[in-house]
Structure formats: C-alpha cells, structure tokens
C-alpha cells in the first residue's frame, strides 16, 4: 500500500496546508540574518505586506493562532509603539520595496480602540508611506469588537475587504466550540458593515461542531447569505493540542465531510464559485482591484509579533506558541527588543531548491485553478512530474486531472485537500513539525 493509499484510508482532515512550511518547522537561526542580505537577491516589486495584532477579547476553543485574549490594559498601546519602531527599521533596511496587497490580521485587529486603530494606519502612512486605499487591503474582525466608529474609520481608510469571523449563527453551536457570542451581535455588526459600503465582505463559518447537523449548517449559511457576502470561507473544525477544545477529553463525531458537501452544494445552488477547499466567492461579485501578486513566487513582509515573512529561500517570524503563558512570554520579548534587532531575522527556516518546489506545488495544487506545468517549468527549469512523479497517483485515484498544461484537483481531490497537502510535505519538514515543542 502506498503512502497516499494509507492517508486516504484515514480522515480527510489531516492538516490545514495554508502555508508551507508551517511555523512549527521553524527554529532559531545559527546567527541573525540581516534583512538586507535576505532580500537583496529578491524581486521586491510585488510584495505582500502583513500586519499582525495578537489580541482578542477571548480565545475561541478551536483557535491555535498566535494571540492573547483579554490582555492587560496598556499592552496594546505598548505593542503599537514597538510596531512603529519595527516598521521604521524594516523600511530603513528595505527602502525600495513595492507592495501589491495588504492584510491586517491576528488575533482580532478590531479589538483595538478607535484611537489605536488610527495609530495603526498612521504607522502605515508615516513609516511605510503606504495607505490601504492604494491596493487590495483586507482586515479581520469579530462581531463583538465592531462599532459604528470603528467601521467608519476602516471604510474611510480605504480598506476594501473586511473578514468577519462568525463561525455559526446558532448560539449553542458557537458555545460548543468555545465561542460565546450572541446572534444579535452578529446581525448588528453585519448591518454596520453593509450600511457603510465596504466593497468585499467575507464571512468565516465552521463545520463539524458537536451537535451540528446538515440542517443547522444550512441554516447558518442561509442567514449569512441574507447579507449577500461577496466571499465565504467554510472551515472544518480542527481540535488541536493546547486549544480549549484540545484540553477536553470529549470524543468528537467526525461528520465534517458530510457537512462540507452539503455546504458546498448549497452555495453552488445560490451563485457561488469555489476557489479552494475553504473559499467561495459570489459569481457576480466584482473584484475591487486587479493585483498581480502571486503567493507562489512573490514575497511577503510581515510586521508585528507573530507575523510571518518570506522570500523564495528564507521564511522567518517571531517564535510560535498557542498556550497563554507561551504567547505572553513571546510578546513580552518582542516589546523588550532594541530597535536594531528588527534589522535581522532570528527565527525561521531556510528552503533548499526542493522545498521551494514543494511549496510552489502545494500552494498551486490546492487552488481550483490548479498547477500550471508551464509556470512551474519556467520557475524551476523542469517538469513537475519529473520532479514529483508520485503526483500521477492522484490521477490513478480520481483525485486530479493531468493534462499537458495543468494538474487540477477533481471535486473528490479538492475535498481531500487537507490530505493531499500533508502528503506532499517533505520528510525533513514533517520531522521538524513533529519535534516542535509548543507552549
């Protein structure tokens, strides 16, 4: 039995391959790597900029992101001061960057008070000569943290995409996954966003909660569609170590595949197209910007504790943790750093040629547009099937269609994205992830 056969016999939900390698494969560098040295050989004309705000009003039971719930009163203010210093240092090291898109995430950026949000945008303008109105800009939010003042500020800054974490319109379902929220808060937040006219509204929903049924999932989707979101992300529930749900001894009934299929078909019937296992976009929705950014080949500069940066060869960030004490310690260390420390990368991973190829393959294949064999060949100087001959197994099992031009997952393959992604991880990366000590 091949390795793929073995994996296909297990749950379809092995790991969410949103980035490769995962941060759990990062380690301290033997010596600090100067940013100028890292970025000197890179094309800096189409970079993505990411700002991380690691604060939330509470930590959801399923969350393994780098965030601290209910921080001390002045911690956010201290954080913004240090973020400004970091941004200034990065600008001085890389004065000739050009951004093609901006994302502000966390955590929950809208946890910040209005004056703090204004400071965040001031950092972009003063330190990076950048404004959200210049290119596609997405900001993450939660219903409980949105107010009319914050939404107006976000709109006035030119942010054209707001991503709202809903998870479920059913209060009991949300509570079962460690997210105490009221439906009234959700509706009020959505009305605020729609009334102000932000061009793209994305809603995140989760399937697989204890007690959730096909009917209740469809009901949440129906309530979401009442606000005509341009995008929806449907996330399978993962119960991970050190999260609230991961600490409970409860056994979970894994009916996620059934729920996924029901949700997918529901959205298809209502005019949405699928772009990945998780992402659905309304067919008639107009993209507010045309961007040439390509995550397979273009780099990203991440600012803030918990942000990831990557070039073609070096991925780096602050250290990673999930538990409160570990996250708090990493944030405290970030706040203590001297300005010159931000001129170098201290923690991350170096990708050799094969790892670069794997990343390109994974980031391409798990999209509905699939992998362009010509694009891969022009990037790496060889055919992807020669470099990764095991890909032909995907066609044997009906998981992909391979032509002279592309490799595209079938519907059966797409719903196995969280199996196919980990199947393509290298042994070296898997070993580093397995031996990572998460706190």
Structure description:
- This protein has 439 residues and is of the alpha/beta class.
- It folds into 2 domains: 25-282, Aldolase class I (TIM Barrel); 353-431, Arc Repressor Mutant, subunit A, CATH 1.10.10.
- Helix content is 37%, strand content 20%.
- It has 17 helices and 18 strands.
- It has helices at 3-8, 35-39, 75-93, 114-128, 148-156, 171-176, 183-196, 214-225, 256-269, 324-336, 353-365, 373-380, 384-387, 392-396, 411-414, 417-423, 427-434; strands at residues 27-34, 47-53, 55-56, 68-69, 99-106, 137-141, 161-167, 200-207, 231-236, 272-274, 279-282, 300-303, 308-310, 314-317, 344-350, 371-372, 400-402, 406-409.
- It has a 9-stranded mixed β-sheet with strand order 10-11-9-8-7-6-5-2-12. A 4-stranded antiparallel β-sheet has the order 1-15-14-13.
- Helix 8 (214-225) links the parallel strand 8 (200-207) and strand 9.
- Helix 3 (75-93) runs parallel beside helix 4 and helix 8 (214-225) runs parallel beside helix 9 (256-269).
- The longest helix is centred in the N-terminal third of the chain and has 19 residues, at 75-93.
- The two termini are 36 Å apart.
